[in-house]
Amino acid sequence: MNHFADSVAGKGLLENMEEIKGNDSGSLFGYTGLTQLQKENSKLNILESEQGRTMLASYPRRIVLELTNACNPGCITSARSHAELNQDFFKKEWLKVLEPAFDYAEEMTLTGRGEPTLHPDFQHFLEFAGHFPIKKHILTNGTRLREISPWIFEYKIDLITVSLDGPDSATNNRIHSGLDLKKIVGDLRELVVRRYFAPVKPYINTVTTLMKSNLDVFPRMIDLAADIGIEEVKGVYLTAFSKESEGETLFDIPGKTEEIFNIARERAESYNIVLSLPHIPGKDPAGDSVHRHCHLAWRDLFAGCDGIIRTCMSPKNTLGYLPFAGSSFMNEIRNSSEAVDFRARVNGPAPGMNEACRKCYQPSCANKNLMHAFVQESE
Ligand code: SF4
Known about the structure:
alpha/beta, TIM Barrel, 10-stranded mixed beta sheet, 15 helices, two-stranded antiparallel sheet, binds iron/sulfur cluster
């Protein structure tokens, strides 16, 4: 690990974070410096989630803004590559509807089906959030890291997640055609150097979509993270949306997957890198439930670039439409009749759930014992 990494990477940053946790309510990143309003809202939200209340007094803990579904590289890991999508961009005026929640929520996450930094007014969303105590999290493919780097420090970004699907150019560039790993790694190194000297110290991690093409080399992602000087490496499973990519999923090789995960764990321990991995197929404590307990309808609000409010990235769970929303966030968005009805059904018996939830593939709630967590060809 280089000397920049020694000072800021590893568990040092994590030790300075508090985590507000609930049993089934899903933990968010452990931020320090939350206001009393944010802390009280999070506690109430966890209570409402654990009690399964459908009408909520709490605001969401996380606001996910999908700024666009447009993406620069074509990659085999993306659902977007397999769907015919018009290019949409989140409209700045929709923020007005969501604004009341920005004083209460812990985190604004910029992610979705596209690359958020491609939004022509990307800076506006950071600036807007800067007027509130909400923490800022960007998930990016890393192609525009250099361009957004000044804003990372100007608007005090708290968390940056870069999607990297291999530790070497051959693997990564094959999965993400059009991406240049060398450039992304170079820009990440610059960011780490800049962070060393800046008062703003965003936590940086990578997320790798795990598949047969990159499983063997995954432990080397940890070498790369240590070499760059970043804190965490995450892995999530590939979900196949086409016949061609179905053979890439890890559902049918749990033994090999576990073997590689164990190598990765040892390596992460030796570098003091945080490693986050999904359950091995067949060993998910969710047993044979169609999905793990879903807390997202309580904790999160997902606002799509098409103006549709959802609970998660699944396009089928529609809870409202931003362009038609009035001025009352709590009545018309948070407790819309669709949202209240959805909460009543999402963790109930499978026949009453939305079809998307019966076949949930979202990393946080999918039951990795079941094929539909890995294959969504018909979707
Ligand atoms: S699709 Fe999955 S993550 Fe999304 S709301 Fe349904 S159960 Fe929750």
